[in-house]
Each structure stands twice: as structure tokens, then as C-alpha cells.
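The record is kept unedited without comment:

——
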Amino acid sequence: MSKYDYDAIMVGGGAAGLTASGIAANFGAKTMMIEKDKLGGDCTWTGCVPSKALLKAGKVAQNIRNAGKYGLIDGEPEIDFQKVIQHVHDIRQDIYEDADAPENFEAMGIKVISGKAQFEDPHTIKIALTDGGSRTVTSRYFFICTGASAFVPPIEGIDSANYLTNESLFEIDELPKELVIIGAGAIGTEMAQAMQRLGSDVTVIDMADRIMVNDDPELAEMLQEKLESEGVDYVLGAQVNKVISKSDRIEVQTEVDGKQTIISGTDLLMATGRRANVEGLNLEAAGVSFSKKGIKVNGKCQTNVSHIYGCGDVTGDYQFTHMSEHMAKVAATTALLKFPMKVDTDHVPWCTYTDPELGHVGATEQQLNESRTSYEVYHFPFSKMDRALTESEGEGLIKVFAKKWNGRILGASVLGTNAGEMISEYAVAMKNGVTLRNLADTIHPYPTYGLGARRAADQWYIKNQSEWQVKVLKKLFGYRGEVPDFSDPDRIV
């Protein structure tokens, strides 16, 4: 054991690297973390943090426009985009200093190195130091946590276009007048709403025939209608053939149902996915298997080289910050404690932080149908949720997919205010075998959005009730009330 310089080296200081480093140090391992840019990675600098700050600014602007729904006076917000972006930068910096700055990890006994690492052999890496020179170190275990970068497909003309990605969007200081977004996934959808609300004219293009293809179709359609009502235009089912750059404009040539269309704007945002950062690591020298998708790992995040692990976006599987942290916990615990943990792929929650939010956990309805799993769908609208009504946030719907007889939850989707918080309750329930009956019988405080989860669970009782059961009860106990109308299978009680 002592023949190596370190017990654990983390290559990459994003969500996965930070988590794995903290766990390793807490276990008493001599730990090094290497990052070529700033600690915090994509989440802090180009992803979760700045995008949510920008979305909040857009929501405040929209609330001013729609103040009448709160009994106030509608107005048009005065937006200084430079101040908005400065606010985004300030939030990033605050979070970095509070949680991600090197001194925080140095205080835990972790050696933080700024530089680019590449393998020389399975136990050795060479670091090209940011301030010059190089350093070679060895380790008993390695954790590759290098994340992913924005992927831009090879569209004709794209190389000569001055386009934005999530890695450059938050560095602009002038609001795009007419923003064209290619990609209607989470990034494209969030930024479409944020920019539209801040004053841009936004058009979103996608090859799919709907937005948010990984989410529930019904809820995604409701979200699209909401964004369209705010002014976002959509060109869906579109093949992008060419991008043409002009002096002050960008044109995107598309084809929809065989018809050629040109979408023009002042700015272009490519929200076309992400690709694992595997280049430059010299993984061949370590014998680690990888592909364009990313590093290949098993359920314990272990590569084909037993002492080398891959965590987070670099594996190409679940590109969420929370999954990066989960994978890092599994990898570090498995490697350093020899405790047999496994990545939980059955209860992966996600949320798109538009207004309203769109969240999901577990199996989708499509997956349940494809696997021929028997299930029931339980609905509960936000329009019947008192807390949502008090805040004039009645747009939204809860959908839970569960077994009819025992109420075991198979998946859940939520569109509405605080959907991300609500989906967490379903994630906990599914992970721990809590059924709809258990949720329905659990006291929730009133009035809360969480109470909506209980009300949705109440529908399990309702759907398992029948007309004949009520008639038997009436006869048995001599009750004199009316028999409820059971003719509507989607009735909400």
C-alpha cells in the first residue's frame, strides 16, 4: 500500500470529483483532486447554478407582467441585462466560495492540483500544471470524474457560425434580440423560457415532433403550450440542413415534411446534448475501455481496470449532477471500504426547472407499456390543490403509475410549481417500498404542495372502490345516502 504516493486520486473537480474526494478524505485516505479549470465543474459555472439564477430573473420579470393575478397592478419590467448577468455571476461566485473553493477541500486534508492529467500506466498519471511544469504521481485508486462538454453536431456551416452553448451563454452581456435555439431538451427548454421572459424573441427547433422527449408526453405538451402562450415559437419535426452566418444574423435552413424553411435570428444557441470528456486522458495507457459515449463502467462504477473508477457525466449514462454525486458515493465506498454498493438506476429522478417545473422518477408510461407491465394511472390536478390556488399557480398535473391492488409506485411525473420537490417524495417512497396506500395514510401539513402527493395517493382508494361495494355497505349498515357516480374512470375526489 505504501508504494503509491496517494490512496485515491480524483481526475476532475466537478460534482463527482468533489463528492468522491470528500468521501475518500473522510475515510482517512490520502487524497488528491486534479482540476484543469475551476472546481465546481459544469454545475457551478455553466449548468445548474447559472441557468437557475437566470430562470429566476425571468420569473420575477414575468410576475411583474402578470401581477394582476395576485391582486396587484400589471406592469412591464425594466430589464438591464448586464445587471442580470452580473447577478448570475455573483451567485456562481458565492456558491463557489462557500462550497467549491480549493481551500475548503485543502482544509479536509485533500491535495488540490490545478492542471491537466493523463495516464502513463494504470497506477501513474502525469500532470501538466497550470502554472507551468509537470508532476508525476502514483495512486492505489483512481476516480475519473472529468464530466462532459457541449456537443455540437456536424451541421453544414456550423464551424463558421458564431453560436452559443451553455458554456458561453452565461458570459454574454447583451440580450439576444432574436434567439434561435436548436434542441428542445431540458437546456433548450429552460433557456427558451428564461430568454423570452427577459425580452428575447425565441424560436426553438428540434428534430423530434415534441419537446422534452424523455418526459411524459401529456405533461410535456402542457408545458409547450405554456411556453407558446408566453411567445416562444416552435419548429418541430425539423431536419436542420445548414447554418448560414451573415454580418449581423444567423440563418438556419430546416426541412419539415419535405418543405424547406429558413429560421433567422440574431443569435444561435446550440442545445444539442453533451459528450463525455475522455480525450487527452491517455486512457489507452491505463488500459481503460471507453467509446465516444464515454468510459465503460459496471454497476459499481468500476472500469475494466479494477482499481480505476468512472463517475458522473464522463460515463455517458445519466448526465445529472445528483447522479454524479450518487455514482461518486458508490465508487468511493466500494473502492475504499470494500462495501458492496451499486448504482440505483431504478429510482433516478430529474426535473426541468421551467415555470411550471416538470419532474419525473421511475418508469415512464411508455416503458411500462413496452414491458407489458400492468398498472393504473392516478391523476391529481394542481387546480384542486389549495396551496397552488392561494399562490395563483393552478397550472399543472400529478400523474402516478402504480399497481392497482397494492398501490406499489412504478413511476411518477409532475408538472407544476415545486415539481422538483414533490418528485423527491415519490423517489423516497419508491426507494423504500412506500405504497400509495401508505402515502394516503400519512399526515401531510395543510396547505402545502406536498399535500398534493397525498391527494394523488387518495385516488388509489377511490379507484379501488366500486358501486357494488357501496351498495353492500348501504344495505349492511342501513345508510341512506346516494351511491356515488362511478361512471367516470378519471373522477377526482
